[in-house]
Structures are given as C-alpha cells and as structure tokens.
Amino acid sequence: MTKISMLSLRAAAVLALAATAVAPAAAENKATPAMTAFSTAWAAVHDYSENIVTHETTNDGKQTQDRTYSYEFVKPTSALIQITDGPGKGGGAAWHGGDQVKGHQGGFLSGIKMMIPKSDPRATSLRGDQIEVASFGYDLDHFMNTPGTLSEAPGPTLDGQATTAVTLTPSPAEANGVTREVLDISNSTHLPVKREQYVGAALVKSEEFKDVKLNPGLTVKDINL
Question: Which of 90, 111, 205, 222 could disulfide-link to 56, CB 3.0 to 4.6 Å?
Fold first, then answer.
C-alpha cells in the first residue's frame, strides 16, 4: 500500500472517530427541590413587572451604590429598567436581546436617547451587572449552570413570605470574585424574593424583588422608552 493510501486511511479513521464523538454537555448543577419548583413556576410566566431594591459595593468596600429600579420583562429577551431612586435617578434602558440597549440618563439629559453597548458603564450597575441580570430567568440559568454546588435550607420570612434559601458555591470563584450566592425563593410563588452575593464573608450585593406582578399582559411593544 502506498504512503498516500495509508495517510488517507488514517485520515478517514480520525474523521470517523470525530463524527461519533459526543460533544461535552453544558455544565449543570444538581437541582434542589426549590430550584425545580422555581423552574416550573418560571415556565408559566410570559411577562412580569416588579421593583428591585439593590445595595452593592466594590470588592474592597470603597464604593457603594444604593438604588431602586422599576423592571418589566417579556419573554424571551425584552426588558425595560428605570432607576426610580438613588444615583442616576431618571435614567433607563430598553433591551430586546443582543449586545445593545436603547437608553437615556437622568436629569436634563433624559431627553437624549441613544443605542449603546449593554456593557457600557452608563448601562450597568456599580459591579458591572447588565440589564438581563435583573431577570428571574437569568437567576435560574445562573444558579443551575455556574460550575459549583447547590444546597438549600429554610430561609428568612421576607415581606410576609416564607422562603427557602438556595446557596450556590461556585468552583472556582466567579470572575468578579464572588464566592457565594444566596437566592431566597418564596415557598408560595416559587420565585425569587431576594438574592445576595458574597466575596468571602463580605456581602457585596443584595437585590430585593418587590411588588411582583406576574403575567400582567405586557407585550414587546411595551418595552420601550
């Protein structure tokens, strides 16, 4: 057999093995009962609105940001967020998937609307969180698919709701230095009531989800500035 024939056979064998290889599955953590219930509840939501009360700091604690947002979301990827209290009050952004948002700043600049990258500091929080991070769908995906382990325990009573606290311990630590996240899930609605992020023992971000209205009839046309 010639050298060319031998090489052809070897190449064919390599291609055959490649064709039968199974692509590695995406990382997925073992769901806890509360996360399974969260997934089921989220599947029944088409659109929702809420207010989000946030507190966040830089990892070194030298900068702090306290804000309240109004937030509206329509599946699959339409979101409207507006700062109703705190730094940047009056600013907002609308997103319909992709890498850009339509936004405006607060104050006398509120009439100027422009398309900017959703990673632009004008469109993110102090810790660099982008508009989609505020959605319940993001929380579900993040907790289930960030490499690490999940555990759950009885959580605090928040706004009169008993909760289950689901803890994500990422391994390794996340890119922003977060080493632990806690998602308090309502035992009645099975949707998040509060989320916390820690760097070591230090709380660096908390979000409280208030006045949640499920399936109020929002459409994509409503997600606009």
Answer: 205
